[in-house]
Every structure is written in C-alpha cells, then in structure tokens.
Amino acid sequence: MKGDIGVIGLAVMGQNLILNMNDHGFNVVAFNRTVSKVDDFLEGVAKGTNIIGASSLADLVSKLKMPRKVMLMVRAGDVVDAFIEQLLPLLDKGDIIIDGGNSNYPDTNRRVASLQEKGIYYVGTGVSGGEEGARFGPSIMPGGAPQAWPHVKPIFQAISAKTESGEACCDWVGKDGSGHFVKMVHNGIEYGDMQLISEAYHFMKEGLGLSHDEMQATFEEWKSTQLDSYLIDITTDILGYKDDDGEPLVEKILDTAGQKGTGKWTGINALDLGIPLTLITESVFARCLSSLKEQRVAAEKLFEKTIAPVQGEKKEWLEALKYALLASKIISYAQGFMLIREASEDNDWALNYGSVALMWRGGCIIRSAFLSNIRDAYANNPEIKFLGSDPYFKDILVESMPAWRKIVAKAIEIGLPMPTMTSALTFLDGYTTARLPANMIQAQRDYFGAHTYQRIDQPQGDFFHTNWTGTGGDTASTTYDA
Ligand code: 6PG
C-alpha cells in the first residue's frame, strides 16, 4: 500500500502532524535527516499506527502514490532549499512539495515560480496551533501553485481544526507566497495580542496591586466576554500556576521576550507597503525593549522610577481595562487586515478576507470568538477598508472609548508603559481626524527642500512650491513617493 503523503522532519510539529494525518485514515511516510529518529518515532509514539518509515529521500519518494505529495516540516531558510534540491531529481512533473514551516513569503514566491518552471507544484502553508494544534487540529493556510490544491485539500481539511459549525479552518489562500504572508500576519497579530494581555496584567499587578488569584479570577471572567480566546485561556492558567514553593511561576520568569522574526517581518512589510500597522510594530519594539534588561535595571535606578498605585474602586478599573483591551484588540486586527488587503492588491492575490478570518477561527494561537464577527463583517461588506467601520465593531469602539481613554491616561500618569493600548487609541484618533497636521510637514518639506505641496483650494495632483524665505529660489525638486 503506497503512502498518501510523505513528511520530512520529525521534530514535534512534524511528528504531531503525521499522527494527526494517520488518525484521519491517511497513509503517511515519515523521514528525518537523522534517520535514527525515524526508528525512534516508529518504535515510540507511532507504534501500532499505519505510519511507514523511510530510510532515505529516494525510499520516501518510492513509497508515495502519484502525484507524490512531500511535506517539509523543517527549519525555515536554507534547509528548505537544500531539501528541494535533493528532492528534485527524484520527483516527476505534477508532483507536489509543501513547506509547512514559518518561511518568509518572498522565499515562497521564489520557490513557487522556480519549481513551476520544472513542472513541480509548490505549496507554502502556514500551520498554526503549536504542538497540540498540530496533533489534534491546526489552522492551515496554504498558498502557492493552485494545481496542487485539489490534491492536498482532502488531507489538510480533514486534519485541520473545525469551527463550532463544522467548517474547516483551512482553505486555499491564493497564489505565490500568500499562504505564508497570511501566516506571517497571523503571527504579527499574535505578538500584538500577547503584548496587550501583558499590559493588562501589568496594570492589574503594578497599578491596582492585585494578587495572582485576583488577576486569575478577572481573566476567568473575561473568558465569557467578547475577549474569549485561546490566549486569554492560557493566561488564566499561567496566573494560577504555582512553582514548587507554592509561589506563582510567572513571577520567576526573566522579563526578556524572545522572538523568531515573524513579527518583525510583519512590521517591515507594513513599512514597505505604507500601512500604519502601529500596534503590532509596537509589540515587536516592546519585545526589543524588554531584552535591554541590564540597561533597564540601571535606568530605573538612575531615574528613581516608581509606579504610583492607582486610586479608586478596583472593580471599576478592571471593567475599564476590559474595554481598553477589547478596543485595542479590534484596532490590531483592523490594522492587520489593512496590511493583508494592501498586499493582496499589490501582488494581485485576490485574497478572501472573510475566509482568512475563518481559517483563524479555530486551531491557531489567535483563535477567538471575535474572528466570527470579522468574518461576518466581510460577508456584509467585502470592500470594507477598516474593520472598525463595521457596525458591530464601531459600536464596541464607541462604547469603549471613555474607559479606554481613562486607562491609557492613567497609565501615562503613573508611569506604566502601555505601548500597544496607547498606540491603538492614538491610531483611532488619527484615523478619525479629517484634518491632520501633515500640512505643517508639507510646508516644512517645501521650505527646506523644495519638495512641493498640494493645496486644498486647487485640484489634487497639482503641486506648488513657495519661495518661503525670498532667497530659496523658485525651482522645485521632483515629486515622488517612496
Ligand atoms: C503558531 C505560532 C508559531 C510561532 C511561535 C514562536 O502559529 O503556532 O505562531 O508559529 O513560531 O509562536 O514565535 P516567536 O518565537 O516569534 O514568538
């Protein structure tokens, strides 16, 4: 009996995806560069399953049904290219290579195009949900050569997470590296959600002086609100987790956040595409700032920094905090979808934004009830440019506004850093301001560099230069936008 799919890479994500595929009745052939790991796997967790081992890439390929489907679950970067190189001589036209790692989407663009020329269909897919998701139902975001989709669809949709109404959290994203692009934005949103929750925890702990039990109880309550999400769930658990000495483990963890790069890529893409993705980018910078631990320790002493406790009824502050968190989260997703729209239009990907929201509804790290509302917003109006304009989200933003301002203002007053909640509010204030002070910037640019400006009393597209000092001359520089 030949295998339905081959999987290369037996780290935890690879192993769990294979076991998941096996559970759903697919015959999987497993291979790992260090071949002894294949035997360990077959003798260990895979014992008693239908999983077949391979002793080499040639062996793996020989054991697969046509068209062959080979999925790479290996470290992103050069390792992916190296495996593609080794696989190519073994494959035939019409065979499929799938990359399930966190690859940077320009790499996927390049691989899809170069393999297409050789008649091989390449798929770059985001797989989210960590170890447990991979084992029992991840969110899967495949893109690349569309010819591959009918062949991988039955496997991916069977093993993916399902929504409450049974829809698969996996659909075809689009051509080129669009699947990996969407996964990258997912990770950026993940960074934003994590930073927002951390800010709420910081406000509770340092501002309100809550105990861990009180904080845990608050997060527990938030589970039954619009904040209901996987990250709120795990935060509740984390707050209740005690170390061997009975103290909360979270307080013993060094406060420097790591990062593997997907959040940074999201920020870089936003800058490249000119999208004000302020919240996610702030969350990347917050991780960078956290890693300057020694400098922070010294600066706290130098500035004799203390955080003044927040006065007033704690219950009211917590209620306000909930609104501030929810409203900020809406802004983060709205900005993330602005970036996805811009990339889709720029690359001619024709992405379906509602379908992206559905793919994130279950299985992935940012899964939440709220994504159903995003999906509905796009179903009502696929052209919506800013999710905050959708009636459901607009009402929440308007309702949250006083509490949100109160929290952000208080944080600034007492010296508690809340970069994402603050930047989200500032973004909305900017987005809802018809006339911003950018006229002053244009005047300055024209003053010192003759960069020209447009006038509100003349047709747009006509550019003017003023000799502001009488000595600058009348020659304007050429007009272009980066
Ligand atoms: C997922 C996650 C995962 C990511 C980790 C680590 O969707 O399952 O996004 O793909 O690798 O969360 O990311 P950082 O190390 O950058 O925090």
Round the Cα radius of gyration to an integer and report it. Answer: 25 Å
SS strand fraction: 5-15%
Strand segment count: 7
- Gap between N and C termini: 57 Å
Shape: globular
Q: Mean pLDDT across all residues, rounded? A: 97
Strand order of the largest sheet: 3-2-1-4-5-6-7
Q: Structural class, please? A: alpha/beta
Q: What kind of sheet is the major sheet?
A: 7 strands, mixed
Low-confidence stretches: none
Query: Bound compounds, please?
Result: 6-phosphogluconic acid
Question: If helices are DSSP runs of H or I spanning 4 or more residues, what is the number of helices?
Answer: 19
Order of helices and strands: EHEHEHEHEHEHEHHHHHHHHHHHHH
Helix content range of the residues, please? 40-55%
